[in-house]
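User: structure tokens for Protein FixC, please.
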Amino acid sequence: SFETFDAIVVGAGMSGNACAFTLAKRGLKVLQLERGETAGSKNVQGAILYADMLEQLVPDFRDDAPLERHVLEQRLWIMDGASHVGMHYRSDNFNEEKPNRYTIIRTQFDRWFSRRVQEAGVTLLCETTATELIRDLYGRVVGVRTDRAGDVVLADVVVLAEGVNGLLGSRAGLRPIPRPEQVALAVKEMHFLPSETIDTRFTLREDEGVVIEAIGTISKGMTGMAFLYTNKESLSVGLGCLVSDYRDGAETPYSLLDAFKKHPSIAPLLAGSEVKEYTAHLIPEGGYKAIPQLYGDGWLVVGDAAQFNNALHREGSNLAMTTGRLAAETIIQLKAQCLPPTAANLALYREMVEDSFVMEDMKKYKDMPALLHTHSKTFFLTYPELMSRAAQNFLRINGVPKREKERATLHSFVRRRSWPGLIGDAVRVAQAWR
Ligand code: FAD
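Assistant: Done. Predicted tokens:
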């Protein structure tokens, strides 16, 4: 068949849904393709939903979206084998009428989002993989071929919202396949517990939730982090490390997750839970320097497929929704001005992304991925061990004068890292953080 659309959106994840929804709301004829059985069936996320970015698209989402708990408390734990040094922030201000962050379960959430997208008028074809981009004589992208008996569908623009592992764009030479040091492999389990047990263990009421994010010796010197998020009747527990670190080491994702679950700070939180799901997924972590070409003749790329992920702040879905929306607004604007979707005209999308918080944040941390990659042992092994030892030394009341304890702590840092090493680490972090 050769039905023609204003736009084809490949993928029904966060970015694809945001894009298709925005286009359809403005009356464009949109076809969305999703290789999964349903929207969301292939998607994995922690998951924290950042409400602000969704609210811009669906202002009344709180009415019927499947939200788990709103985040009341954030914990950052730096762990060694037996301990954790923690920073907790809990505020009753987060108990607001329209909370800012929620935990969600992506399969349920994506199904809801997709229903809203279809209600807006988008034609969604599930179990349909876009296998190839179709180009005209001038090399412009004019549609896609799908695995449905080699069907071809034509459109003015194709939006690649195919996620981190999207082969359509890389096969067509629009962007390179991410290198092993540009992606993390995350594994995640769902641990079911009665909601009252979760409330008691985390001192929560009703829909209040806690987020724990943890780094340290749990990643065995690899660049990575672990997490534990409270849902209504389950805990999402996971861990991700760079693929290149897994390649070069002997650890497996599952052995690390297992050790994390057995950690004395984590085990009591999971006690008695029933594990029902085990999933694995990649996370783009190359940062600003890994962002590929974002547009060309007849195509745009959004979300994870374009490496839009702020690994340090664990933001991905919000960048996906924002870039999906901005791609749609670009297409809408060109259409309104009767301008063809040439690369020159679609460059507007890059400008919009540049003007948004997305690129600001990506640029801010542009040197962070390289720093964490090259100094992973220092930041994920040495310092967590030193911090734990310092805290323990300070808290053990054993007749040793405080000044002596301080001196011993300082010596332990200098012995492990040396003065130039310590100063160098501080300067490197400050520079990458700027
Ligand atoms: P996806 O959501 O991956 O969607 C891509 C879709 O395209 C999929 O449905 C896929 O099946 C489909 N597809 C791919 N190729 C084709 C094809 N050829 N034809 C048809 N369909 C295709 N972000 C946060 O904001 N908060 C978090 O707490 C958080 N935690 C995370 C925890 C884990 C373990 C992981 C893995 C990620 C986490 N992220 C988090 C990141 C977040 O999940 C992603 O940034 C976000 O899902 C990206 O959306 P996307 O639409 O670009 O890609």
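User: Anything notable?

Assistant: The first strand starts at residue 4 and ends at 10.
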